[in-house]
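Our consortium's second objective concerns turning raw sequence data into structural hypotheses that experimental partners can test. To show how far this objective has progressed, the report includes one record in full. It was chosen at random from the queue rather than selected for favorable results. The single chain below, 265 residues long, was entered without modification.
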Amino acid sequence: MHRRLLLLALLAPVALAAAEETAWPGGIAFIELGPADGAPPVVEYDGKRVLVMQDGDRWRAAVGIPLEAPMGRATIRVAGDITLSFDVVEHVYREQRLNVSKSYVSLSDENLARVGRERKIIDAALTNWRETKLDGVDLAAPVDGPQSSSFGLRRFFNDEPRAPHKGMDIAAAEGTAVLAPRDGVVTATGDYYFNGNTVIIDHGQGYVTMYCHLSEIRVDEGQDLAAGDLIGAVGATGRVTGPHLHFGTYLNGTAVDPALLLAGD
């Protein structure tokens, strides 16, 4: 009890300010939790476990904020009975219009059923929780190349509105090597209708990355990876207009902007 009261007394005044820099829909609220003595506290946001990392001599939470989150006050729950607040601030995302095959806009019953089956597999991998100690969340770039489409774009395919872009597209020639951006475990691979050849990597504590439209997959489900290991090659499979890597990053089951996690960005 004493430790929880001390945590609240020390950190409640600074939690709001600490979260403001990138605490927008599709962003990340980094919130200081207190001295890193003993086990890390259990933190929840919207009923989901949140990543807690050691940052020097302090515990720090990295809260993924959904794209659909409303602006205004939000809260996390720490150690079961402490509530800390932060503000979700406005962030404007641009519009993007793309032309693709009609089969990727008006789906047949067969393809609708396929997408439904695949979504269950993908969702399970993106929401997996694996206990591990983390001392940061920085990622290396998985492939060399310029960003061709940014995260959060309000998308229209053949002039029909669709879900926002939940990743970063990196332009690169077909066959370019795609590398693991940090240590992790492969939790799913497959050829999916929209995403094409896909790899999903679990980095621990709900921190997950996804790689789509690959020309080939060079890893197996359950495989342990070290940063820099080859996982596949850039391709143009699935719903695409040309070769590129769709790179997705997830915290507490929520898509967040990869640009906020890439080291040096």
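The partners drew two points from this record. The first strand starts at residue 28 and ends at 35. The radius of gyration is 19 Å. Both points have been shared with the crystallography group to help prioritize constructs.
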